[in-house]
Amino acid sequence: MKAKTQDSRFQIPDSDCRGQSLFEAVVALAISALIIVAVVSLVSNSIRNASFSRNKTLASRYAQQATEWLRGQRDSDITTFSSDALTPTWCINNLSWTQAGHCGSGDFITNTIFGREVSFVLNSVNGKDVIEADIIVFWTDSQGYHEVRSATNFADWRQR
Description:
Blueprint: H1 14-76, H2 78-84, E1 89-91, E2 115-125, E3 128-141, E4 144-155
């Protein structure tokens, strides 16, 4: 019987094969880890931005709601509205004249993270009294303190 001989030119030592595979595995693992970190970072930023946008939209809605409430107060009784506006700042979380002064740390619109206050400045324009109302809706989240501001001028539109 004839013995098989192997050509030594085509043999690769075992130690070279294992080292090559280990290096490739480490590089693949590193690339995978970088991709996962990048994806998690992008998702985290997207969620944070979406949450901020949602809160800012809600805050704008609450500011508009306060403006409409103030407009209704002015239209129903301008005398009472003007006397209430003599107090420079009101916390109007529940759309009422019950809390004069700045909102405290626990004064939120019911079941929300938002606080809402209005500051009044009395002006006279062409002989007419004008009440400037600055509405601030504020909230705090993981990114810090935020606020949305709205300013409206109120006058007695029935007065000539």
